[in-house]
Write a structure and sequence with these properties.
Blueprint lengths: L4 E7 L3 H12 L7 E7 L5 H8 L4 E5 L5 H11 L4 E5 L3 E3 L3 H11 L4 E8 L2 E7 L2 E3 L5 E3 L22 E5 H7 L11 H11 L4 E11 L9 H19 L2 H6 L1 H23 L1 H31 L5 H7 L8
Parallel strand pairs: 1-2, 1-4, 2-3, 6-11
Antiparallel strand pairs: 4-10, 5-11, 6-7, 6-10, 8-9
Length: 324
Amino acid sequence: MSATLSVVIPTWNHRDLLAECLKSLAAQSRQAGEIIVVDDGSTDDTAVYVAREWPDVRLVRLEKNSGFCAAVNSGIRAATGDWVFLLNNDMTLAADCLERLMEAACEGVAAMLAPLALFRDDPDTIYSAGDRQRADGRPEAIGFRQRLEGFRFPKTIFGVSGGAGLYRREVFDRVGLLDERFIAYFEDSDLNFRARLAGFDANLVREAIAYHVGSASLGGKTWWRSRQCFRNHALLIIKNLPLPLFVRNFPSIVRERLHQARRLVSSARTEFGLVRALAMLGAAGFDTLTAIPHCLRERRKIQRTRRISIDELKRLMGEGESAD
């Protein structure tokens, strides 16, 4: 029996983006067994639109906006497939994307698979060729804003983006869903880290192409993104980084923490002024501190069940080799 596939799309307003996303799914050479749209308390007519125009799509409605992680988790819980493809509403897919991903899923051993994501308005430029986890704890998209022509793709990737990532159901069963304390940003990196520590592999499927609009739902609030990155960078490290690597990488971690703080103040200062920007940094720091007990409880469980060696993890968190 062939593997079954569920697609989960969290959405908050932006009905126009969702429409393009759903149209690209309808045009796939391999159709998903189910498509689940999670309406995260939209204030436009997203739910009405989906019910009217896409009757075969399962609609999960949240009464209020609960944040990206909560919306995705609601969709994962509702999904029934052997594989779950998480897809943002600002993504569209090439017609054979799901077919290529599922071929790789069924033929390989990796439990997390990333399509090659390109910018929709500039398809010669890479948005993401999988995710990397740097030694300083900062996750980043491989190849971001680099030209596709001549790009040396990595032989291995650390993980996949929750904006367009295919996961074997076993990943969620073993390591859990997205951590809702993250709200948004780096939540997929946290999942990647937990999955890697538990012994799961990740691969890039270069032949599977996705197209990304880029922070369409952020509405220009770069200060909020900077705040979340500052906070969640710390949560990611506290939960997942084994102590030997924390000690080894401590100087670079501190430099990255300072860099994150400067970015938060700079982006907030543009909109609110210096005094309020500094107050926002203090509030973000306090919010980080209040999350530490949760992170430490999770850390004990995560590290106790770690299956990957420190040396292998160190290799994965390095820059990595490029494919020939």
